[in-house]
Structure prediction request, 50 residues.
Amino acid sequence: MNLFISRSHDGDVHIYSRREITSLILNAGFINPVYGRISSTVCIITARNR
Prediction:
């Protein structure tokens, strides 16, 4: 999907992988990320502050 988006004219868009999101969350100082699915295209991630 990121290959397609890079050729679109919709601006600066990037679809993050679960690994990338987890890394961002942990590097921001949060712990215990939990993933849930709201629909086939929407997920929610919660994490605890240290």
